[in-house]
Hints:
The N and C termini lie far apart (about 65 Å). The protein has 1 helix and 19 strands. It is mainly beta and about 300 residues long.
Amino acid sequence: DDSAxxxxxxARKTTHDSAAQQLYFEHAQLRVLDVPILWLxxxxxxxxxxxxxxxxxxxxxxxxxxxGLGLKMPYFIRMGDHRDLTLTxxxxxxxxxxxxRYRQAYRSGGITFEGALSEDSLAADTRGYLFGxxxxxxxxxxQLSFNIEAVSDxxxxxxxxxxxxxxxxxxxxxxxxxxxxxxxxSLIHFQSLRDGEDNSELPTIIGDxxxxxxxxxxxxxxxxxxxxxxxxxxxxxDSVDLGRxxxxxxxxLSWQRNWTLPAGILAQLQGGVALDGFRLDQTSGVDQAxxxxxxxxxTLRW
Length: 302
C-alpha cells in the first residue's frame, strides 16, 4: 500500500558477504516511519542466517531513584559454538558498573555465571555479586547440579534491582530419579541478608541425604515404600542454644493397598513404622533422643 515500514535502514551502498554472513552499509540511515533518526558513516550487521555474532546489543536506559538515569551498553562476545560472554558497562552520575554473563555448553550439561562490580556513591568500597548455576549428567543415570549465590553487602542486590532475595542459597547436589527409586545428596549453604538476623546463629551449613524405594510384592499386594534420610545442620556460633547444632536420622517402612468395592466404595489400608534418632550439640537441654512411631489407618470413601 506504499506506506513506510515501521523501521528501515537506507544506505548509499550495501554489501552482503554471504561467506562471512555479514551485511556492510556505507552512509547508513536508520529511519522510523521514514523519519531519519540516526546516521552512521559505516555499519555492520549479521545477516539473518547468522544466529550468534560478536557485537553490540541494543542499549538500554535505566532509571533508579538512588543511582539516577543511566545507560547500559551490552557487548556480546562469541567465543565459539558452545560458549559466550556478555559485558555490559552501566554508567550514571552515581555509579560505574560492569555487568557480565558467561555461558558454556558441554556434551553432558552446561553452566551459567553472571555478576557485576560497582564503584558508586552509596558505599565507600567496591561492591558486587556473583550468581552461578550448572547441571551435568553423570554415569549410571546420576545428575550433578550446583548453584552459587554471593554478594558483597546486604543492600547491593536491591540497590541495583538485580534480585529481591533476602536469603541466598548455594548448594551442590547429586541425584538420581527412577520409576521406583529416588536418591539425593546435597550440601547447602545459606546467607541471610535480613536486618536483625545473625548468620552465625542460623543453620548456614546443611547436609541432606535421602533414599526412597518402592516395592510391589506379589503375595502381599499393594505398594511398600522404604525411606531413609539423614540431615545435619551447623551454626558458626559457639554459644549454648543459640549455636545449637542438630543431626538426625530417619527410617520409615510403610505399606499401602487400595480396593474398589461394590456400589462405588473406595477402600485404602495403610500401615507402617518410623524410627527417628536425634543428636544435639551446644544445647542446655536433652542432647539425644530416639523414637519409634507405628501407624495404621483405614479409609473408606463413597
